[in-house]
Amino acid sequence: MILALSGGSIDGALYRQVVDLAHRSPAALDTVVTAWSDYGLAVFAVLMVIGWWRARRGGARAAMTALTVPVAVLVAFAADAGIKTLVQEGRPCHGLPFRTLEVCPGAGDWSFPSNHTAIAVAATVALFFVSRRLGAVAALCAVAMAVSRVWIGVHYPHDVLAGAVVGGLVAFLVMSVLRDRPRDLADRLAATRLRPLLVS
Fold first, then answer.
1. Torsion sign over Cα 148, 4, 78, 55
2. How confident is the model at residue 82 (pLDDT cuts 50, 70, 90)?
3. How many CB atoms lie within 10 A of CB 123?
């Protein structure tokens, strides 16, 4: 452990304002935001599949790029989880006297950085390597995911900001490195039984 960060001293006031706004908002809105926060990551998986399916039309190299998107997301998640373990910032719903929309995660489920946001932003950045249109759709979804994590009360604003930075930076580096893989690798794989994965 490097330090046990106390996030309330960083932006606890802003966190309180967002949670208070959530409590004063219509119940239907809170239900939608909570559902998105819990299940919205599935949308990024769907976007990855769409990106791969369409990339196959562009040839084996384009399809290989699309298939590296999940790899970038997994690496970003691992990096984010490693930082969580080092920093060990407690959840705001444990440290501040506020009732939250979502049940507060148990002790030891650290807050900084936000895994959900890191995954969402990593997927967004990686998808931009495949399709600007899919990347733009993912970007909107990622912003919604980041806001939802604070709205339901399980993260401070700086948690989601840090998650976005970690996820975006790691995904960009991974995609940049994998993009420079041997140029003929995709063509060689397309000549094997893996051809249906790479060429439509």
1. positive
2. very high
3. 31
- Which position has the token pair 């960060």? 5
Tracing tokens 């690496």 back to the chain, one arrives at 75
Q: Are 170 and 122 a contacting pair, CB within 8 Å?
A: yes
Asked if 24 and 108 count as a contact pair (C-beta separation under 8 A), the reply is no
Cβ within 8 Å of residue 136, ≥6 positions away:
none
pLDDT score, position 183: 62
Side chain identity at residue 169, one-letter code? L
166: part of which helix (H) or strand (E)?
A: helix 157-179
Closest CA relative to residue 90, chosen from 159, 38, 18: 159
Residue 81 dihedral angles phi and psi, to the nearest 5°:
-65, -35
